[in-house]
Amino acid sequence: MLRILNVAEKPSVASQIAQTLSRNKPQHRRGKSKYNPIWEFDHYFNNQKCRMVVTSVSGHLMKLDFPQQYQSWNMIDPLELFEAPVERFVDEKSSEIAKTIEIEAKKARCVVLWLDCDREGENISFEVLEHCQKFNNRIQYKRAIFNALTRQDLTRAWERLGIPNELESISVDVRRELDLRTGAVFTRFQSKLLQNMFLGFGEKQVISYGSCQFPTLGFVVDRYNRRKNFVQEKYYFIDVSIKNQTQPQDEDEDQDQKSNYQRNSYNKGRNNNNKKLIKFDWQRRRLFDKFCVAVLYEMCVKNPQATVLSIFKKPEKKYRPYPLNTVELQRRCSKRLRLNATMIMNIAESLYQKGYISYPRTETNSFPKTINVKNLISVQQNDQRFSNYVNKLLNGNKFCPPKHGRFSDNSHPPIYPVKPGNNLQGNDLRVYEFIARHFLACCSQDAIGDSTVVTIGISGEKFTLKGLIIREYNFLEIYKYERWSDITIPNFHEGQTFIPESILFQESETQPPNLLTEPELIKLMDKEGIGTDATIADHISKVQYRKYVVKERNLYFKPTDLGLALVESYDSLGFQFSKPNLRANLEFDLKLIISGQKNKNDVLQNNIKLYKDAFLKTINNQNKFITKLRLYFQINPNPPIQNNKQFLQIMTCPKCGPQTKVLLRTTKNGKTYCGCRNYPNCKFSIWPKENVFSEIKVTQVICQSCLRNKIKSFKCDCSFKNIPMISHLEPFPYRACIYCDPEIAEFVSINMGATNTNNSNSQNRTFN
DNA sequence: GCAAGGTC
Distance between CA atoms of A8 and A3, rounded to whole angstroms? Predict the structure, then answer.
């Protein structure tokens, strides 16, 4: 029978597809990975009976990385990582999943790719496809395109299978490669520089750079600096109050008061408790010109009679929230429950695994038509905390269909509770309860009130007072995370006049902004496109883990010296690493790749050039960079390695050919030598007997002697053109061939390593 | 020992 392999992005989706298409009768068996089972059932494909095999990966199947010879931080110049080859291979962590797919692909005629319908999903599609084709090069393939995991969507996707979108996938390849290269280059560079040059950094302390980490850090630093550099300014305003629960007086009730105002700020109620006063807002709010406010104030005091100019009444609403997506879950829980985003996501993940809530990684904030929200509401009927309210929604007239937000990931619905959370405890309970209350709130009506805005005039100045009477709390009854309060004010009528309780000349100062809180940071990252709903929490954790940022009082993010030093160092060179622009520009380019307006290589090469130029500039201006760092850290008087000489290219490798360089290197024991970049594949190396390599320079001179004799016999194609010269030999500079000059031979030994020739004498030969 | 993005 025709056998079709179906692969989803995660086990839950595989299960959903199998349940739906099989009409709830799939057979279940274990795969090689215990987390990714296989479902089987009979089905029809183009009216032909087929055997469906449905399984899943867990996110990306493959990993992108440099080949093994580029893994050494000590032996590889970070600069090389801009051009070094990169390899895509099955991630060790996914090896069992890959095995399942291999086995099933061998037996299948066709693979249908049910990966999430987003950029990453498109990329994973090609990873899965490539892996299938490796073991079955005749396998056919199709892409299932679906917007939700509903029967309707899945069935339609099955009936109208398409092809994977290669451009979308390519855009992800570009992002991955750039993130890898730039991350590795700058991480190694900064880590080594700080470890070697400054005190206080452990040999293993990684000072990472990442295209999302740095903007995240940048947001924190930016707010910190705005606060630090804030200049307080005095401002002035007029404060008009009336007595609370006092009916306004008629104008001629107390003529004596007027004369009192003329003397000074008169406060009729000064013996009363101030809390009993109701303050009007000055329509000018505040002015920075003291004299100006003083003049206006004097006018008011001289003629303090207030006249009610207008009374404006209108209904007012407090809007219920949109259906919950991941970013809002993190932002709101972080704000209201004071949990950090990583913790929230871990809890949400575990609630999802235990079946309490729907899939928690979603961008979608509107419910698809296929989901009956009333059924979801009824889930909460048995929960004592919610049963009364649920009753009002389902049996009263309090239900209102949720609003439609404008975000969608075309795959997952908003987050909602799936079963009652009666047994939960601690933070699990708090997060669950938030999700449940939020869900019920978004199925409720907006809160309704009546607002009254009273405007009065005193000597030409206007003051307003706003009152609010809440008529129906509606969603606020269940959503305890938001407040809306009655503001009771006395009754006024237009044209009415009265003498205020007090008119005061007030001065105050502008306040610096607070340090950044986690909900604010989440909002900024989301807005500026730093990270995704699923990774924002990771980036926030990472900048703390890396000690760039600390959280104070479990509330405010503050940059550390390290965080500030890094941002300022790159800033001093004019690089916007800590700003969101670079990432945003890349995102823009990726969209152009997808729309076919730019090609992969252009974007890749342009961006590599951008970062490479920045890196070269960083190295060439290391002093500038280091000067900034010295403001925060002390120089290590005994640096372990001469960092700047670490990666000098000495010559091309006589064994590997002109593409491969021989580099100046240092052993763990601090001994300097030259070694082929291709180590451990090539063991060619030059060992000085004394430490004579510190001044090695490369020349373009060809050694005629070598061409004719010894070297050639070692199959070292001596067409290499570079001859090191060693400076401490007289006359300076001493210029000679490192291979055949007897003077040099006294100072160096050359290890050719194992060669492919049959000449066993050629191994480990020295020059003596 | 490095990134960001999927995911368990």
Answer: 17
**A536 close to A530: Cβ distance less than 8 angstroms:** yes
Alpha helices, H only, A597-669: 600-620, 622-630
Tell me how far CA of residue A565 lies from CA of A627, A632, A741, in angstroms.
Answer: 10, 7, 49
- Distance, in Å, from the CA atom of A360 to the CA atom of A330, rounded to the nearest integer, reads 10
- What separation in angstroms does the CA of A602 have from each of A189, A224, A593? 26, 38, 10
Structure tokens at A273: 């408790």
Give the bases of strand B that a protein CB approaches within 7 Å: 1-8
Nucleotide nearest to A352 (CA to C1'): B8
Three-state DSSP class for residue A181? helix
Q: What is the CA A24 to chain-centroid distance, rounded? A: 39
Q: Which of A46, A55, A51 is nearest to A22 (CA)?
A: A51
State the amino acid at position A45 in one-letter form: F
- Cβ(A663)–Cβ(A75) below 8 Å: yes
User: By C-alpha distance, which of A306, A291, A293 is closest to A261?
Assistant: A306
Taking the CA of residue A188 and the C1' sugar atom of nucleotide B8, their distance in angstroms comes to 30
A648 vs A661: CA distance, rounded Å = 10
A7: enclosing H helix or E strand: strand A2-8
In the block, tokens 């307080």 appear at: A232
Q: What are the pLDDT digits (tens) for A65-112?
A: 999 999 999 888 999 999 999 999 999 999 999 999 999 999 999 999
Closest CA to the C1' of B6: that residue is: A59
* A359: annotated active-site residue: yes
Read off the tokens for A641: 């390695």
Q: Which token pair is A741? A: 């000059």
What's the pTM?
0.81
Distance A61 CA to B5 C1' (A): 11
Report residue A312 CA to chain centroid gap: 46
Handedness of CA A8, A11, A15, A18 (dihedral sign): positive
Q: Count other C-beta atoms under 10 Å from residue A304's C-beta.
A: 21
User: A359, A432, A479, A556: which one is catalytic?
Assistant: A359
Q: Which residue bears the tokens 């030598």? A: A673
**Beta strand spans in A497-611 (E):** 497-498, 502-509, 516-517, 549-552, 556-559
Distance CA A135 to C1' B3 in A:
30
Model confidence pLDDT, tens digit, residues A299-342: 999 999 999 999 999 999 999 999 999 999 999 999 999 999 99
